[in-house]
Amino acid sequence: MSDKKRVLMLCTGNSARSQMAEGLLRHDAGDRFDVDSAGTKPSSVRPEAIAVMRELGIDISGHRSKSVQEFDGQKFDYVITVCDSARESCPVFFGAAKELHRDFEDPAALTGSEEERLALFRRVRDEMRGYLEKFARQAAQGPGQGKA
Fold it and tell me: What's the DSSP call for residue 67?
């Protein structure tokens, strides 16, 4: 059995933010975390999310938008909601999972030119990467460790 911590990234559509978060954490700390993502109202993975992740050498083109119900009954160490809407409707069936939340702007909601949309996807991706790097450091320390 793996000693990796299980993490579920959760947002509404599982089309952009949670998909990028899944790809980032899997790429940057996949040796320590098993990562999945889901949505409360899944749709499809946004091409802009695939494009801006590819810029970092991270391929999420094989990802699909999944319903949170697909994970019913599974155990997670962490459930990270990346939008307020998902937090408000977050299922309670994750048991002992530690719930974390950070609302990131929804890049899929922006209408505008392709370059404007891609710029917002990049900004949200980069904000997420910083947040997830901090999460991975803190999770690695575990409770009560890393203190003098």
Answer: B
